[in-house]
Amino acid sequence: MTPFVATLMTAPAGRVLFTGERDITAGQVRATAAALVPRMAGEGPLFLHTASAALFAAALLAAAVARKPLVLPAHTQASYLAEVGGSAAILIDDAAMALSDDADAALDTTADDVSLTFFTSGSTGVPKRIERRLAQLETEAQALEDVFGSQAGAVQATVSHQHIYGLIYRIVWPVMAGRPSADRAAEYWENLDGRLGPGVTLISSPAHLTRLPPAMDLAAQAPDLIFSSGQLLQTPAALACTAAFGRPVSEVLGSTETGGVAWRRQSAGDEPWTPFSVVTVLPDAEGALTVLTPYLDDGAPFAMGDRMEALEDGRFRLLGRADRMEKIDGKRVSLTRVEEALAALTEAVEASAFTLPDRKGALAAVVALTPQGRAAFDADGAFRLGRHLRAALADRLEPIERPKHWRFVDRLPTDAQGKRRLSDLRALFDAPRVPPYEVVSHEGDAAHLRMTLPATLAWFQGHFPGEPILPGISQVHMAVLLAREVLGWAPEGVDLNRVKFKDIIRPGETLDLTLTAHRETGRLAFRWQRANGGEASSGSVG
Questions:
Q1: Distance CA 31, CA 393 (A)
Q2: Are 382 and 424 in contact (CB under 8 A)?
Q3: Domain limit, last residue, from 131, 165, 196
């Protein structure tokens, strides 16, 4: 019997394992598992997918007693289940279970390790089966306890337990360590308001940590530990989290295959990674990161696809990816898989997929159009065509795999050797953030500028489809950018004062911008006027 299963078997019936709308106890988890065991009899694979961590834990316990392997799909869309072999499988989900309060439910006290199948995108673009054992996840949970146990507390989370990171950090580790965990993951930051604070561990990801809520006082309810995994947390976001919470984020590097490999906390930027004590990290002949880990059965070195720099103290730095896998909002995405799905559409000849670092790593695609695609583009425009293609990909790709940003061309750009260059593809998304301008006057800390706003200005994109207008916040931001260029100074703060937006600004309009730097107060005054003198907006920022 593995430690996690033994804990569920022997914990006092009244011990609270999961929290939420109501507390869920060890006795309830055991009773739920007892009711589920008979339904696991028979042949065929068992697919498990729940929103409830408590029901998931009960299913794990039932599988250990029934000695049945479990398959853990990322989601339950019919086309995806068909792709991963789940069309004819028994699906155990929230609707198929009910939390039981039967204190007299009998559960066999003998149990075995549980084989778990996860899915991740392989290099071929097809969802790849990754076999792990529950005992291996328990070993990783113990490694986490050795490093972070003295600081860890009750768990709140923004990530799903269907993936290995969430499963270990939200279920296996807290159950083994005797700490309660939230039954449901928070979809939005607002769902966590009032649930954080001292004695809490937050299990999150860059998808949430790069979008901190301005309306929440995070410092007043800062958790003792904040974890991030799934993809790298870029330095600006890591430092912003430290400023907001008053403590750094503990980032964990790993994958479904390897489990957690190393951890770090950024304080200045690009801090080295410290391997967990049970993991050996070494570069291969080409300098790529390979690991020896107890979480793999064959004991062979595993190449993670990152280039690395080994340091003398045993730590290491990452030097970028060496393959065509990207992590987007914490999930691995095969660019090859995305391109194949796009090329199969009737509107596309071929396509190239990649991420845009200056847009928070969002997935983008450049598509060479067929005559049918060109006709759709001419009739509906780029925005509607992109939305149509996202919908057409729904049967094959998860939402995270569908590009958010689009460019449509007659043929993909190539260099003299006929090869695609990522820089050329990304350049197609470089819309100007400030328009060309004329300095009408500039005296000391005041300047008067004149400009005509092109339709290609970045701020018009998507705001709104078919009826572009210049957003108010963009008017403020452009004033700050132009003050930095013309006056050589910009306010450090972002507090707005006496801001008024009096009229709509559309593409093609000629505007005058007056900037005045009040250095003594740290504020910038701005005024946007039409060439005929009508005021569009004004105010100050600082």
A1: 42
A2: no
A3: 131
